[in-house]
Amino acid sequence: MPTKVDIAPVVLEAIPNDVARRHDLRTVFGNDHPVELELGVGKGRFLIQNAEARPAVNFVGVEWAGRYFRMVAERAAKRGLANFRIARDDAAHLVRDNLPDACIDVLHIYFPDPWPKARHNKRRLIQAPFARQAARVVKPGGLVKLATDHEDYAVQMEQVFKADPDFESTYRAVGQEAPVGVTNWEVKFRAQGRTIHKFEFRRKQGHRAAL
Fold first, then answer.
1. Domains contained in the chain, CATH given
2. Residue 113: active-site member
């Protein structure tokens, strides 16, 4: 019988919808190190590898699927990663309601659900209201990094962040130009021969436009 793993040290406690408070990440980690957030961590390959390799950076992951949430939490707990936290939550909800202003140095969004049917496009994460919230939580000079294998969603991602007044495009790569990443989705999609699209947008310095 497998040994039960105590995941409490790496779990970011959920904040109920009706409680008007936000995570103080400096208190959560006990330091003021840079914070990187990944939305939709899947099996956690990217986040755990980075947390192990970069102990001076704090990493937060969000995953809604209970099976993956538990899997990632157990892997992080087994490794004793003091710079790692994971929350089981809806990504848009956590960003909008539970994060304070200017708390994230890098926001990672890799292969979010493309909702490919036209009638389902409205369910996509990357839309104008989300970009406004990203501008609120990402520090001036911080980055939003995105990747997708879905061409139509790639177009939408680029249009949304280029249209937002608080972001500027700093990088884009398609197909063979796109550097190889380590997420499980990317490994799978590359093996299938799919075209990968990657983007980076920098949060502009100075005053933030109104939400």
1. 8-203 (3.40.50.150)
2. yes
